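Narrative of accomplishments. A recurring question from our advisory board has been how the design workflow behaves on a single, concrete structure rather than in aggregate. To address it, we present the structure tokens for one chain from the evaluation set, followed by the sequence designed for it. No filtering or post-editing was applied between the two.
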């Protein structure tokens, strides 16, 4: 820590009723001369004066700041952009692109679709069954 920071810390810890020594004697800088003292006096802020002046300031309107930070809705522009390009690729091309993007491992491959077999109806008719019954069991 520098000596000036230590001095400031000690000044904060002093009891409030105790009178302070003159500026030059307090810091041991009385022998430096009048030029240094004038410079220090210029730098020391006075509690009554305000350094913030109107000169060089730009007045900001709160309404303008609000409109600048107001969120903009881009929905209409985005919808027009999306609806403008209505080019639909062929199914074969899309399948090829999807196959190229898929990995080569078996876990990345989609399961193969097996065609479901339709339950086949019987080839024989009721008359054929009766005929078979007569021949096999001998029933008239």
């Amino acid at each position: 820590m520098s000596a000036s920071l230590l001095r400031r810390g000690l000044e904060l810890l002093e009891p409030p009723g105790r009178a302070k020594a003159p500026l030059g004697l307090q810091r041991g800088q009385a022998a430096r001369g009048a030029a240094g003292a004038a410079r220090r006096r210029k730098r020391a802020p006075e509690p009554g004066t305000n350094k913030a002046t109107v000169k060089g300031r730009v007045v900001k309107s709160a309404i303008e700041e609000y409109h600048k930070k107001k969120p903009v809705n881009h929905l209409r522009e985005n919808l027009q952009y999306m609806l403008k390009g209505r080019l639909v690729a062929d199914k074969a091309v899309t399948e090829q692109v999807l196959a190229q993007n898929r990995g080569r491992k078996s876990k990345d491959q989609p399961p193969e679709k097996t065609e479901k077999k339709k339950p086949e109806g019987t080839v024989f008719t009721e008359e054929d069954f009766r005929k078979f019954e007569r021949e096999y069991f001998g029933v008239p």
